[in-house]
Amino acid sequence: MAVAVVQASLLVPGCRSLKDKRAVVKGLVERARNRFNASVAEVGAQDLLQRAVLGASLVANDRRFLAAEAEALLGYLAGCPDVQVIDRQVEIL
Predict the structure, then answer these.
(1) What is the CATH number assigned to the segment(s) 2-92?
(2) pLDDT tens digits for 30-62?
(3) How far apart are CA 3 and CA 10, in angstroms?
(4) What pTM was computed for the model?
């Protein structure tokens, strides 16, 4: 069994309030959970207006498949028009 831990720092431009930011981030988290069957949550920068840090974990038997899914998740986040990925980290345990 292998576990992938993914962390992505995001810029959420155009938000004028924390409520706006949380609406964008919440929708993104839900879509990522459903699409990748992963555990995804906002894990940092909750009080910053245009920043968010998402954390995700994925579990699989095959490390190569897991690495590909982690990259696909990061690619999905990078392709979302509402956010920009500033930094990303992937650790496979």
Answers:
(1) 3.30.70.1120
(2) 999 999 989 999 998 888 889 999 999 999 998
(3) 22
(4) 0.86
